[in-house]
Amino acid sequence: MSSKISKIAILTSGGDAPGMNAAIRSFVRLAEYNNIEIIGVKRGFQGLIEGCFEKLEIRSVSNILGKGGTFLRSARSIEFLDKKKRNLAYKNLLNHGINALVVIGGNGSLTGAGVFAEEFNVPVIGIPASIDNDVYGTDFSIGYNTALETIVESVDKIRDTANSHNRLFFIEVMGRKSGNLALNASLASGACFVILPEKDFQLIDLVKRLEENKKRNKESSIVIVAEGNNYGPSYKIAQDLSKVYSAYESKVTILGHIQRGGKPSSFDRILASQLGMAALEAFKLKKYNTSVGLVNNALIHSPISEVINATNNLSNDLYRLNKIISR
Ligand code: F6P
């Protein structure tokens, strides 16, 4: 590909995250300011294969800053795993005179971006967006803060009814491999127990905690369950618990995709705008094949190869804190 970057394609891929629109808006406006043409790709890598392109200008990204989802649409493209299809995607870029690519998404999307960049020598920059906050190389990925607020608001509401009926509620949140959402939701909502993918869970630990709480006159309880925990779905946990402990009537609420929708928080809008700027800077500084991030309040660029081979570990300090104060 030519060394002068004059036309860049941008796409959103994988699970949508509130704030993706704000990142596109920021990148498009900064690119236009720097006389770089931007092409939006519809439906992620799938749209790259099918050539679903549209020119983006300042006004194409008006009134999207406060909107959830992604106006470019997203997809988890199975076809992009096939080298022949990736070849088609590359040809589409060449045919449109596009000489670089921005990928906004989580770990799977950044992995696809890294493979594509290496195979075809296309300069690629990743912008981390995932409600799971499991992308390495950034303290926060776009969408996490909004999803956390949505969960905490929901748990607060459930607590009202849990208290009124002296019930135990299992509230299942997203996070197949990462407990960041679950742990922080537990801390922020005052749950009495949290079940995480990163920590081995045994039913007896929950029974002990509930017995202790009962002795301290706790009348209702909230347990936050991350979907990817080692034991199983929250319905199974509730059912198995009822066989060995019956002091509480228990109920299950699965928050599901409500966690991914809604207006992005101010934090996510600002984070996304900053990461859009870091992506544009990455091109100017020729820091190709990197993923941008915000670490200790500074914008950084990390090689995609490093980002996809590491994980954003759960904070053990927060885990210990939560364990002690959640009674
Ligand atoms: O990766 C983000 C995420 O929201 C996970 O937390 C969740 O497990 C998954 O996506 C759900 O994906 P889908 O909407 O494709 O079922």
Please characterize this protein's 3D structure.
With 327 residues, the protein is an alpha/beta fold. It is built from eleven helices and eleven strands. The chain has a seven-stranded mixed beta sheet, with helices on both faces. The longest helix is centred in the middle third of the chain and has 22 residues, at 144-165. The radius of gyration is 22 Å and the shape is elongated. The protein binds 6-O-phosphono-beta-D-fructofuranose. The site of 6-O-phosphono-beta-D-fructofuranose has 11 residues, from loops.
Short précis:
The chain is of the alpha/beta class and 327 residues long. It is built from 11 helices and 11 strands.
Question: Which characteristics define this entry?
Answer:
single chain; 327 residues; alpha/beta; 7-stranded mixed β-sheet; 4-stranded parallel β-sheet; 11 helices; 11 strands; binds 6-O-phosphono-beta-D-fructofuranose
